[in-house]
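hi! just following up on the protien thing from before. the input was this:
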Amino acid sequence: MAYLRQNQSTLTAAEKKRFVAAVLALKRTGQYDEFVRMHIDFYVSDGDGGLRVAHMTPSFLPWHRKFLLEFERALQRVDPGVSVPYWDWTVDRSRTGSLWADNFLGGNGRLSDRQVMTGPFAYQNGDWTITEAVSEAEFLTRDFGRPRDPLDLPTPADLAWAMKDPRYDAEPWNSLTDTGFRNKLEGWTSGRGNDRWRNHNRVHRWVGGHMLGASSVNDPVFWLNHSFVDLCWSRWRERHGDAEPYLPARHPPRGRPQHGRIIAAREPMPPWDVRPVDLLEHRTLYRYA
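and the predicted 3d structure came back as:
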């Protein structure tokens, strides 16, 4: 039977407690940090050589769907009643909303060093030490809205801009693609400064701290962001039922710039032996409330 992923704003205190407890249990056993390391290992940008599967690439959505499912299954081995809630950042935009409460994810970082001081993931509680990071400290950091260079969370109009595009993706199949739902939802644009970031990317920038870059999984809000991104992909498919569900259908031929750099619809995505076409439908596993 399919389980539910709920809007975080509808969770009861008991549901929040169970989710947090399961996340902390994975951290204690070291399993959580394995997910952090995986995301770091597979964060390959346009400017790097080799295969891109997680970011700046058509497989951004199916790769993160599988990543999220693997994390959710790990949580459910701790508590079968837990699933990953989603954060609708077009609606829940407050810095002091329920998402950031002391009984859930905790709040913003303090001014001096951006250290999160409240909630279950505060370093001072002794349960959340950062061990896998690129450049941040061993305590969880956040910097809501980046006051030194302010930006807001994505708006409903930002998301609508992505959702209305009827094409899944397009050449050059990277962060420079100016049409296609995938890149518009992932959030790369040709804008300058903060105007460059849209949707998913803008959320990472708005939270700041550890949510910037490859080690963003260190902040548990990562999962709630990607749960909503996954929901948006599901809604896009419902809206554009006649569209090709994933592109490219075939691998770029030898001699093309993206040959060997991206995943076609029926090619396996590392580190799993699963293809994008195998992850197009989720309703037998989970559905959204």
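The mean pLDDT is 96.
The radius of gyration is 18 Å.
cheers
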